[in-house]
Amino acid sequence: MKIIAHRGSSLIWPENTVLAFDNAHKAGATGFETDLRLSKDQQIILSHDANLTQFGYPDKTINELTADEICNIKISSRDNKCSDSIITLKTLLQKYPDKDYIFDCKISDKQLFDILKNQLSELNFHNRIWFLTWSKEADAYIQHIFPGYKYFPRELHTKLWAWSSLLRLGKMFEPENHILSLPAYHLYMPIFTKRQIADIHRRGKKFVGYLVNTEKDFKYCISCGIKTVLTDRPNLISKLLEQ
């Protein structure tokens, strides 16, 4: 099973930092998911939100600060027991060039995709990258700038598919994308089925179990033949795989 660490090992460590990714790597993560934004000086920064309010910096906005200014900011873990600096995408890719990646492109600015293409080219980076976007424009940029790369359906389509899957009508509303994702449960009800996942794989598509953070989620994914999971707890998933 492939283990994709969501913003690194973000349940324990400050998300999208070296601490988070280092500990995810040590826990056995085979890939990383991370969030892409642009700084004032057009550097790709790893940050889920446009600002740093959740970390106690209500006046700090990613696109109004330079990369150096941003990377000098310390953010805390969820329990406030540790902190680390925000980093650029280049820092992460240089440290872990062999991981699989999911890039959550938080903005739809063409400049982000142009800069990313140049950066990947400069690093001679591999193509084991999946994209998550938030607009039709961003999807079009990927098709043009990264032809052949796979990207997830946008949130609204995925939610529609999730609800239809609960009603066992998933095939009818399945997105056309070649890479798909759903959580294991909603309101204690399993969303997808073993038969549904087998059919997706048979048709050559990829499927990711989304935010598999509990033993219950993991066991259901295993029972359905899931081959890739996205998790905040790569240490837990690795431990369960060893059992």
Descriptive overview:
The protein has 243 residues and is of the alpha/beta class. The chain folds into two domains: 2-151, Phosphatidylinositol (PI) phosphodiesterase (TIM Barrel, Alpha-Beta Barrel); 155-242, no CATH class. 36% of the residues lie in helices and 23% in strands. It has ten helices and 15 strands. Strands 1, 2, 3, 8, 9, 10 and 15 form a seven-stranded mixed beta sheet that branches.
Helix content: 25-40%
Taking the alpha carbons of the first and last residues, their distance comes to 13 Å
The number of helical runs is: 10
Beta-strand fraction estimate: 15-25%
CATH architecture descriptor text of the largest domain: Alpha-Beta Barrel
Which runs of at least 5 residues are low in confidence (pLDDT < 50)? none
Number of E-type strands: 15
Task: Tell me the Rg in angstroms.
Answer: 18 Å
Total domain units: 2
Shape: globular
Mean pLDDT, to the nearest integer, reads: 97
At the fold tier of CATH, the topology name of the largest domain is: TIM Barrel
Largest sheet geometry: 7 strands, mixed
CATH class of the largest domain: Alpha Beta
Helical/strand content category: alpha/beta
Order of helices and strands: EHEEEEHEEHEHEHEHHEEEHEHEH
CATH superfamily of the largest domain: Phosphatidylinositol (PI) phosphodiesterase
Task: Give structural attributes.
15 strands, alpha/beta, 10 helices, 243 residues, globular, TIM Barrel, seven-stranded mixed beta sheet
